[in-house]
UniProtKB/TrEMBL annotation:
This is Cyclic di-GMP-binding protein. The chain crosses the membrane at residues 741-762. Binds the cellulose synthase activator, bis-(3'-5') cyclic diguanylic acid (c-di-GMP). It is a single-pass membrane protein. It is found in: Cell inner membrane. GO terms for cellular component: plasma membrane. The keyword Ubl conjugation does not apply. Coiled coil: none annotated. Tightly associated with the cellulose synthase catalytic subunit. PANTHER family: CYCLIC DI-GMP-BINDING PROTEIN. It comes from Cupriavidus yeoncheonensis. Pfam families: BcsB. Keywords: c-di-GMP, Cell inner membrane, Cell membrane, Cellulose biosynthesis, Membrane, Signal, Transmembrane, Transmembrane helix.
């Protein structure tokens, strides 16, 4: 969630006016503008707030409750508070169509037993307003303590910052060490924030899109039901898939799910795809005169919205869907006619907006949305985190590292001490450097950085990151620890807060890498959608559906395309969707096969070369010693070939089973097939659930991933094939390097050739000197 400073936006002011118009509720001057006096605060047992100076007006009753955990508020673990006045901040978003009517913070924490308790407490702030203080009592020191604090809802706006600050002392002496080890408190991950919310009815305006279907203030999973005809054809499914991929790109880290309904569902916002004669129950439209997009109250829940994408033909429906995802900015009112759409030039390989460029060094300022993400304050601040997504098929046959040129600035310690910067990738340490003090007093005049206060220095390092620690989806962490230097009594009091920053011009360079890898590898698919996302618009991808897909099959299609949008950052404008009977029409594309029924029957026709084949009432699996391992997703990690198969087993089981299967396309050498299949129609959702769980995604690898309830098994059972582009000499080296014996023989031969050449050359020189 963005960590922007509190600044009420016009959108929040619009929310207030919407509330007045649509809910006919009392005027709420605090919605979007903190009109309450600064002394207003919550009251709770064992909490000491100030009394409100005026009685707040009555709020509408809450219609929903949301419970946010510490992680959902942006913390990667417990909040560690250290020192005299250390503070940490949590982020809370409030949707455009909701207003907070009640809020309760359940604070679970532990604190040091070595404090001076009359002077020590926790200070709770919301958007820089002090709302409560929590005294630290001696009788509860060192134990897990729970406090419930009521927060005044008048202080909530769009993006909110909840601060927890430790004010602590361990002695009455004025020469107290502000960073003494006894000054600590830990906020437990069991801490929660419960929000009571009243729903506001938004106007029927396309200008608010993508709200309410996607709201950037809400960091929960995006769940949007799609209303489709019972016998939707492939063109209609493709139009729905384009919109699903658009929402998936917007959802990003939140994940997205698109259940399918035949009529407008109750108590939710939904999107309907309509052709003449297929209007959902309760929906009335004027005559469809062409591609159009309109928004109206949901007939099943008038307080919710129904977005209707309509056309006279399936082709016009696709035009309307393309117009929605590309022309949303120009839409206004409750209806828009789409005259024409140009989806632009075809994408080039590996140019997805969500991926870092691999043909040049990429600067950190290209990887973050806000430069403030690269700055921290405090002596032991949270790590600076930079997310990095790269193509999964990067490969360096020379086995060199990934160059990282890191530049950073920091408040200099007075002398050499334990101040360090640690550089990690994917929670694995790469390097650690000691932070140097100022070399001379004149060094302060050599660096002019307005963002950093006090005496500061800059440094740079060129680091090689081992390729085996880099995957397709990565996070770099830069942790500063600026230690105090106590040289005598009263000499360590902090005069100003320490600051540190990573320079936005720091860079990481993947341009030395080639695009080459061994497939199938379901780790690549589960983490980045490769090989389908090689072209960001999915121009070389076709989704193969059963001839008569169920609602579960259609949900799988939409959700998988939503994942593609998340992985690329773009809608899948050129993807093809075909029934199993028409698979020959897309034989030159990579194939994503979804569902059971005729789609599973098509897999059966491709023979026993598949690692697993699931049919009605029968499962057939290859028996083979497999060597798939946990680093299948790392760069330069081409695995060894599996050993010879040992047999084939045919099983009949009553329990549910779902699987992802990868293999080479039977139609085109080098093209890929990934099939999502299951023993029952409703078990297809098990794979979709697994793809949303990072722990389960980490177990997907090889050419077969079997999902049995909560258990995930990733195996390599079938043959591999190689895709990409390497020079001929590099291909020889790659193949030879897989056989140490051949490498030894090649080394001996190379040495013999060099020795013979040298012997021949020296002989010629000797003969020339002797006049021969």
């Amino acid at each position: 969630m963005p960590r922007s400073a509190y600044d009420p936006t016009p959108r929040r002011l619009l929310s207030a006016s919407i509330a007045l118009m649509m809910l006919a509720a009392p005027t709420w001057p605090w919605q979007g503008v903190l009109a309450a006096p600064a002394s207003a605060a919550a009251t709770a047992p064992s909490v000491q707030p100030s009394e409100p100076s005026e009685k707040p007006p009555a709020l509408p009753a809450a219609t929903s409750t949301q419970v946010l955990t510490l992680r959902q508020m942006g913390s990667y673990g417990p909040l560690a508070l250290r020192g005299v006045d250390h503070a940490r901040t949590l982020d809370i978003g409030v949707r455009l169509d909701e207003v907070v009517t009640a809020a309760k913070l359940k604070l679970v924490f532990t604190y040091s037993p070595a404090l001076v308790f009359p002077l020590s407490h926790l200070k709770i702030t919301l958007n820089d307003e002090v709302i409560a203080t929590v005294p630290l009592e001696e009788k509860e020191a060192g134990r897990l303590v729970t406090r419930e604090i009521d927060l005044d809802p008048r202080f909530f706006t769009d993006f909110n910052h909840l601060g927890v600050q430790l004010i602590a002392h361990y002695t009455m002496d004025h020469c107290e060490d502000p960073l003494h080890s006894s000054l600590w408190a830990d906020i437990s991950p069991a801490t929660t924030l419960t929000l009571g919310k009243a729903r506001m009815t938004l106007p029927d305006s396309l200008a608010l899109l993508p709200a309410p279907f996607f709201d950037r203030r809400d960091n929960r999973r995006v769940t949007v039901p799609f209303v489709l005809p019972a016998k939707a054809d492939a063109a209609t499914l493709r139009a729905a898939g384009v919109v699903a991929s658009w929402l998936g790109a917007l959802a990003s880290y939140r994940e997205a799910r698109f259940p399918v309904a035949r009529s407008a569902p109750a108590d939710t916002d939904a999107i309907a795809f309509v052709l003449p004669g297929t209007l959902p129950a309760g929906v009335s439209l004027p005559e469809i005169k062409g591609p159009s997009v309109s928004i109206m109250p949901n007939p099943a829940s008038p307080g919710r919205k129904l977005l209707v994408v309509a056309g006279r033909t399936p082709q016009e429906l696709q035009t309307a869907a393309n117009g929605l995802v590309l022309g949303k900015t120009a839409m206004a009112g409750n209806s828009a006619q789409v005259q024409s759409v140009d989806i632009g030039n075809p994408r080039q390989p590996y140019d997805a907006p969500a991926w870092a460029p691999t043909d040049r060094p990429v600067l950190f300022k290209e990887l973050v949305a806000d430069p403030q993400q690269l700055q921290v304050a405090g002596y032991n601040p949270n790590p600076i985190r930079v997310n990095l997504r790269v193509p999964a098929d990067l490969y360096d046959w020379t086995r060199s590292n990934v160059p990282l040129s890191i530049r950073y600035r920091y408040t200099a310690p007075p002398t050499y001490n334990d101040s360090v910067i640690s550089i990690d990738i994917n929670d694995q340490l790469v390097r650690s450097y000691r932070l140097k003090p100022l070399a001379t007093k004149d060094d302060q005049n050599l660096v002019s950085v307005p963002l950093l206060s006090g005496s500061s220095v800059s440094a740079s390092n060129l680091i090689g990151i081992p390729a085996f620690r880099v995957g397709s989806n990565n996070q770099m962490q830069f942790s500063f620890h600026i230690d105090s230097q106590k040289t005598g009594l009263c000499s360590s009091a902090a005069t100003n807060i320490a600051r540190a920053a990573i320079d936005p011009d720091s860079s990481i360079d993947f341009s030395r890498f080639s695009h080459y890898t061994g497939l199938p590898n379901l780790a690549f698919f589960a983490n980045s959608g490769y090989p389908f996302t090689r072209l960001a618009d999915l121009a070389d991808t076709a989704v193969v559906m059963p001839d008569a897909p169920t609602a579960q099959d259609q949900e799988a299609l939409l959700t998988l395309l939503g994942h593609m949008g998340k992985w690329t950052g773009l809608p899948s404008l050129r993807v093809a969707v075909v029934p199993a009977a028409a698979v020959d029409s897309v034989r030159q594309r990579n194939l994503l096969v979804v569902g059971t029924g005729s789609a599973a029957g098509m897999l059966g026709k491709w023979g026993k070369s598949l690692p697993m084949l699931i049919e009605r009432g029968r499962t057939e699996i290859t028996l083979r010693d497999q060597r798939s391992h946990a680093w299948s997703n790392w760069l330069s990690g081409i695995e060894e070939d599996p050993v010879t198969p040992t047999g084939r087993a045919i099983l009949t089981a009553d329990g549910p089973l779902a699987a992802l299967v990868g293999f080479q396309s039977p139609y085109a050498e080098g093209n890929s097939v990934v099939a999502l299949t299951a023993t029952q129609d409703d078990r297809v959702a098990d794979v979709l659930d697994a793809l949303e769980n990072p722990g389960k995604v980490a177990q997907m690898r090889g050419d077969l991933t079997v999902v049995r309830q909560d258990q995930i098994d990733g195996l390599r059972l079938g043959a591999r094939y190689f895709v990409g582009d390497l020079p001929w000499y590099a291909r020889i080296w790659v193949r030879v390097s897989a056989f140490p014996g051949l490498m030894a023989i090649a080394g001996l031969l190379a040495g013999l050739i060099v020795a013979l050449s040298l012997f021949w050359t020296l002989g010629k020189l000797a003969a020339r000197r002797n006049g021969g």
